[in-house]
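Re: the 101-residue chain
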Amino acid sequence: MEKTPQDFQEPAPLKFLRRLVTVLTGVMILGVITIAGLLVMRLSRDRQQIALPAELALPKGAEAAAITAGPGWYAVVTRDSRILIYAPDGTLRQELEVSLP
């Protein structure tokens, strides 16, 4: 008499290993979902907008590359290696040349 696949009994260690792998897969899926959710919540909460003055007059030929703000000032980094410091009302306070090596 031949054994069919329905007659086969799974050994206990193999059954335990199969269940362990299934549980660990579920735990990993939940962990990835939790970490992704925490990242989304954290990154969307800390987003701050810089309140710029209505108008900043850049010198002729200057093109802004980056902008940052501090308490009572704004800085514009231009593509021609200058940093322009502005007052909150939009007037130019200081201009710095940046020399790159």
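Residues 11-45 form one domain.
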